[in-house]
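Need a sequence for this fold. Nothing fancy.
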């Protein structure tokens, strides 16, 4: 009884803080602790609801949920029972075919009536079925995250003036609505992640973020054109490809290159696609530079290797005069690896290289990640950097494939003439967790 009394004497803000750290179903059950806890959960300011199997029991929440309704109806009833404003609302659901669109709209209206919503996260795990939603005027909204929905902006939409973070993943939207959403969200500062799909016409996206620091953009079949109007504060950019069924490689290369060159002022750039392959299909701009770039990561599929990719690789290095860290992800399989990688590395090692300012004065770290490849497939690439990077401190090769590091490979690396006396080579086996340091 004394324990119950001590619990009852806790200040209200502490009780709410405790409840906020529990799963919602456990927070509801605290009504049985003591009289002072009864229905206290209805003051919860933050809800994270996940339609996992454990939520499906009819009596999961005791008498409050003793009637036989669908899971979404329970969510609506739960939100309608809350007495205070809902600041953060996260909904992770899977069975979209069981969701009535009217229930989802009713849920959004309830959140609007509660007032004060700052974070909205609706995540649908069934990518084959998107619910159509129209966002009401959440004037206090700071974070908006939507996944696998069809977003339609309401008539007279004026934007979210306080929005700092935007994430639209696998989200269907029209060109007019995405450009209106971008144009009216002038306070986006933290990050924007856009993976957009079109319900009908191809998308033409105009990016303008005066305060944004981090951008991730996924190029899909639906993207016809991307224009970077303004992003003066952008520091990090990540550009990827996904669901490319109808694009011709040349068209995709043009769209991709246009977006990559428009983020030239970033300090960190990740190219989550087979960069050299697509860049080899287009005319690359002469004397183009990334004057602030310090970090670059790009993917390279060895099954698509050809000699044209050499020029794209040279263009990348020459366009980044102050690059300090370089990460290359080599992808392929054990059946085609060595010969395909050699197509590029033979070109690199056979020709004299001039004009690589980054290799002369700034590249200090190179990491090569091997997916589905044996570590021997990276030796030509390693040779190139050891022979050309004058201030290199560390070259690290990470691989996942089975197979021992052969002594002959280490001997081959040790025989190389290196230009940086401080350089060391580390080979890391992700399967065993073992590091092998090669003494040069």
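Here you go.
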């Amino acid at each position: 009884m004394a324990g119950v009394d001590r619990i009852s004497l806790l200040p209200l803000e502490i009780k709410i803080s405790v409840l906020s750290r529990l799963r919602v179903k456990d927070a509801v059950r605290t009504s049985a602790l003591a009289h002072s806890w009864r229905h206290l959960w209805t003051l919860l300011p933050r809800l994270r609801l996940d339609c996992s199997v454990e939520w499906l029991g009819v009596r999961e929440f005791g008498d409050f949920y003793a009637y036989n309704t669908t899971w979404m109806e329970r969510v609506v009833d739960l939100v309608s029972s809350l007495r205070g404003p809902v600041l953060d609302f996260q909904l992770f659901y899977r069975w979209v075919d069981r969701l009535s669109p009217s229930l989802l709209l009713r849920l959004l209206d309830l959140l609007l009536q509660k007032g004060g919503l700052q974070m909205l996260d609706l995540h649908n795990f069934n990518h084959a079925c998107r619910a159509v939603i129209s966002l009401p005027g959440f004037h206090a909204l700071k974070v908006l995250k939507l996944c696998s929905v069809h977003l339609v902006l309401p008539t007279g939409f004026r934007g979210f003036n306080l929005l700092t973070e935007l994430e639209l993943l696998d989200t269907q939207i029209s060109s007019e609505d995405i450009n209106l959403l971008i144009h009216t969200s002038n306070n986006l500062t933290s990050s924007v992640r856009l993976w957009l799909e079109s319900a009908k016409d191809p998308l033409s996206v105009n990016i303008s973020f005066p305060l944004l620091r981090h951008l991730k953009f996924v190029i899909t079949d639906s993207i016809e054109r991307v224009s970077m109007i303004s992003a003066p504060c952008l520091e990090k950019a990540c550009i990827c490809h996904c669901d490319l069924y109808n694009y011709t490689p040349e068209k995709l290369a043009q769209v991709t290159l246009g977006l990559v060159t428009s983020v030239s002022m970033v300090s960190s750039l990740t190219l989550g696609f087979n960069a050299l392959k697509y860049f080899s299909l287009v005319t690359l701009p002469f004397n183009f530079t990334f004057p602030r770039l310090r970090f670059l990561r790009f993917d390279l599929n060895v099954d698509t290797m050809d000699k044209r990719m050499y020029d794209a690789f040279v263009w990348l290095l020459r366009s980044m005069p102050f690059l300090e860290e370089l990460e290359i992800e080599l992808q392929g399989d054990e059946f085609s690896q060595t010969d395909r990688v050699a197509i590029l590395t033979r070109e690199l090692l056979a020709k004299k290289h001039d004009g690589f300012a980054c290799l002369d004065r700034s590249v200090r770290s190179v990491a090569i990640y091997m997916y589905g490849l044996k570590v021997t497939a990276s030796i030509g690439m390693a040779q190139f950097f050891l022979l050309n990077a004058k201030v290199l401190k560390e070259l690290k090769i990470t691989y996942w494939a089975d197979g021992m590091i052969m002594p002959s490979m280490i001997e081959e690396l040790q025989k190389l003439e290196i230009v940086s006396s401080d350089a060391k080579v580390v080979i890391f086996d992700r399967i065993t967790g073992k590091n092998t340091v090669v003494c040069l």
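For context: Residues 1-44 form one domain.
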